[in-house]
Each structure stands twice: as structure tokens, then as C-alpha cells.
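## tool: complex_structure
## caller: assistant
## args:
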Amino acid sequence: MCDTCGCGEGGETIILRKPGREGAHIHLEGEHAHHHEHEHEHEHEHSHVHPQDHRGREVVIEQNILSKNDLLAERNRGYFEAKKIAAFNLVSSPGSGKTSLLERTITAMKGKKDFFVIEGDQQTMHDADRIHATGVPVIQINTGNGCHLDARMIHEAVKELDPGEDSVLMIENVGNLVCPSLFDLGESKRIVVMSVPEGDDKPIKYPTMFQSSDLCIINKTDLLPYVDFDMEKVKNYARQVKPEMEFIELSVRTGEGMEPWYEWIEKNSGVLL
Amino acid sequence: MHELSIAMSIVELAEEYAGKEHAEKVTELEIEVGDFSGVVIDALEFAMEEAVKESICQGAVWKIIPVHPLARCGSCGHTYHPDSLFQPCPACGGYGAEILQGEELRLRSILVE
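## result:
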């Protein structure tokens, strides 16, 4: 049962919430609730039916299973482009410092850029509360048992959040280096955040995620003296999977290396990408 | 466990096509899963068992057809079968090959009654 409104919805329900307004929240219907919508019939015109045999009639489909997500992602992308919103999808394993990175970045750049934030998390409001404290609009998506954000959740969250023109939309995905890699949200750039204590073989352990990312942020560089972490090795591994990968080394805690990251945001926002 | 989302999308897609054919049930599904699709076939099998329940696909059999990767080297054009996304070209040692196949995640066909 939903612990906020007691509506009887189970753990798979997706909930959107805003800090300070926890009483008001939106349930997204389960995915099966949408199966009678035929918004995209035009693209399914080419099915072919073969004569009936003893097991039934064959219907040839040949369609990408994630095509619905991909279509909705493109719709999000079009909206972002039209409003010149730079949407960044931050992915990482849990604990790499995504929320801390956002807190520090927003605090430092607030006068220069309008930030809007979508926080993805299975259960809590913790991350949204932290972002709320920086004073920028934020919405929390609780995925319940879901391990990733998808384009539909972003579509609904953006309607609620209503990011302005020329703004920067930071989307903090659920901490997970596997599942979010498959789900295009319509972002302008995907940013994979890793941290020094995680080890330097992450890029080849989770190649799909690194292959689909544009920028790799290596956080917690202040811990380099204390852990076995080879900076060149991690970059070489990442380039094996994605030769054109960009890198930024920084420490959110000490602030060292943050400037190149701020410059990267400037360079990749406010323009058509 | 994104395989459950994938399995639910498969069932949803099958329901949509079956509905257009005015079919009463889906008896078989053919699904292509590339080795580089990011989906674990065992996990998908498990998720499918849940996803078909109380749907038009209940009782259907599914065939998961693995698709083995094929890549073309961006430097020398050599075509080869990579074992991983970070395997260099066996001819020139270059990285960043174009993946020609192996990322498939497709519903190929269904049988309906």
C-alpha cells in the first residue's frame, strides 16, 4: 500500500514528489495500464500475417522491444532542444558522489545558470531534500522496486517541474551501472560518474554503461594517496570501450578540479547540441 | 533487474499486435537477444514467466534466439566477431569498432490464435 496516501498501490508504482510538498504526489500508472494506448500506430503498419498452421497464425513483428521508450525519449529530446534545455543524465554506482557533485555545482553556478533537478531513487526523498536546500526546483521520482529511470518517468517529471528556456536539467539516475544504460531518457549528454575507491577496472566491468556515456567524471581524487588506483589505466580502459570519451578528474569534497567541470557545463548548455 | 521491464515490454508489444489481429491468445513468441544487448538471457527467461501471467501471452512458449556480435574496425575495416565491447581489432589492434550486430533486443514474431 502507498505509504503516503494509502491508495492501495503496491511497491511497483512510480511516485513523483516535491520537497516541502510531500502530501501532493503523483502516481504513474503501471506499465501494463498503458497497453490499450495506440499513440504510435503509424510505425506498426508493416506487420505481415502468414497462413494459419497448427500452432496458430504467425505475425512478423521485427520491432525493437524498447521502441516505446526510445520514441518517448526522442519526444523528450525534441522538447529539450526546442527550449534549449541542456539535459544531463548522471549515471553511476551507488555512493560515487552524484548528489554531492550536484550540490556543489549548483551552489557554485547558481548565478550563471538556471538549474532544475530530477532525482531518481528507489525509496527516499533524501537526495531531493539535499538539492531542495540549495534553492533550485527539484522533483523526486521514486521508482519503487525499479532499478532505472525511463523516458516516461522523465516525461511526467518534466511536466511537473516545467524547466525554463536555456536552463540546465540535471537528471540523477538510480545508482546502478547496469540497467540505466539501456534506457534513453532523451538527454543531451550522458555523464558517468565514478570514484577512486571503486577501482580502476570499472569501465571494462560495466562496458555498456561506459560505451553509452559522453563524459566520465572521476570523483574523490583526494583519496588517491590512500587507494590503489591507476588514473591512466582507468582512462585506457574507458577509451577501449569508447575512444572519444572525455574525462574530468575532481574532488567534490576539496573542490579541486571543479573548474573544468563548470566550464564543461557552460560549453554544453545554452546551445543546440 | 531491468529484465522485468524488458519482459513486460515484450508482452505489451505482443498484446498490441495480437489485438490488431483480433487474436484471442498468443501461443508463441520469438525474441532476439544480442550478446551485447545488456540483457542476461537467464534473467529474461525468469522475468518472462512473471510477465506473461494474466496476459494474452499466458501459456505461450517463447524462444529466445541469441545473436552473436559482429564488428567492423573503424581504422582498417576488418570485420570480426568480438567477445567483448573492449576487444581490439585482431587485424590492426584498433579500438572503437562499429557494432554491426549483437545489440539486438527485438520481438521477431508471434504466433496467435
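## assistant note: The radius of gyration of chain B is 17 Å. The mean pLDDT of chain B is 94. Handing back to user.
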